[in-house]
Design a protein that fits this description.
This protein is an alpha+beta fold. The protein is built from six helices and ten strands, in the order E-E-E-E-H-H-E-E-E-E-H-E-H-E-H-H. The protein is 22% helix and 31% strand. Strands 1, 2, 3, 4, 5, 6, 7, 8, 9 and 10 form a ten-stranded mixed β-sheet that branches.
Length: 192
């Protein structure tokens, strides 16, 4: 397996069996001989971004945030690694944000505090998703998991990421990738 998995999506197999990744769609941003790094897009729902920013002390309580839908959207657990790190996924613009990692031609992600400060000031992308933590794989680990059938690699799809309700993301990603829902891949033989 080559490092052409990133940028891409990883769709959890219907029978994955890992509660951290069950029914997840991972945005894979980095993959090479040293390992892989990605973010669960539809991880556990957390409080809305504005509430999270105020409660964490990143924004003083009386500070008004820009009136944008993204600040009222729930943040999500992006993975079990570095659970105190915050990341924003957004559609790329002509001027990159600090620490920006391009995820295909349309998407980018950053965990840089200066980038977050710019977004809080109303600069940069107007629509984003906030993820807390990330997923990581050691050298060869992700390749082994793919060979065992734990993940289905898929192309990055910005429309899928930003236009699909998170509750439907996993199933919709399967439909777009293979033309069938994930339920089509589970055996029902022997059931009455």
């Amino acid at each position: 397996m080559t490092n052409d998995l990133a940028p891409g999506l990883l769709l959890a197999a219907p029978s994955l069996g890992d509660p951290n990744f069950e029914r997840t769609v991972v945005l894979l941003g980095h993959h090479d001989g040293k390992g892989a790094m990605g973010w669960v897009l539809n991880g556990e729902e957390l409080p809305p971004v504005d509430e999270l920013l105020h409660k964490s002390g990143l924004v003083p309580k009386n500070t008004a945030l820009p009136r944008r839908k993204a600040f009222g959207r729930p943040a999500r657990v992006g993975g079990p690694v570095a659970p105190a790190s915050g990341w924003i996924v957004y559609r790329r613009a002509s001027a990159p944000l600090p620490g920006e990692l391009a995820i295909g031609p349309e998407l980018a992600i950053t965990g840089d505090s200066d980038a977050l400060a710019a977004v809080i000031r109303g600069e940069g992308p107007t629509d984003f998703r906030m993820l807390i933590g990330y997923a990581g794989w050691s050298p060869g680990q992700l390749e082994g998991e793919i060979q065992q059938g734990a993940w289905l690699p898929a192309p990055v799809d910005a429309g899928l990421v930003f236009e699909t309700p998170m509750v439907d993301l996993w199933e919709e990603a399967y439909k777009r990738t293979v033309g069938a829902s994930p339920g089509s891949f589970t055996s029902r033989r022997g059931q009455a």
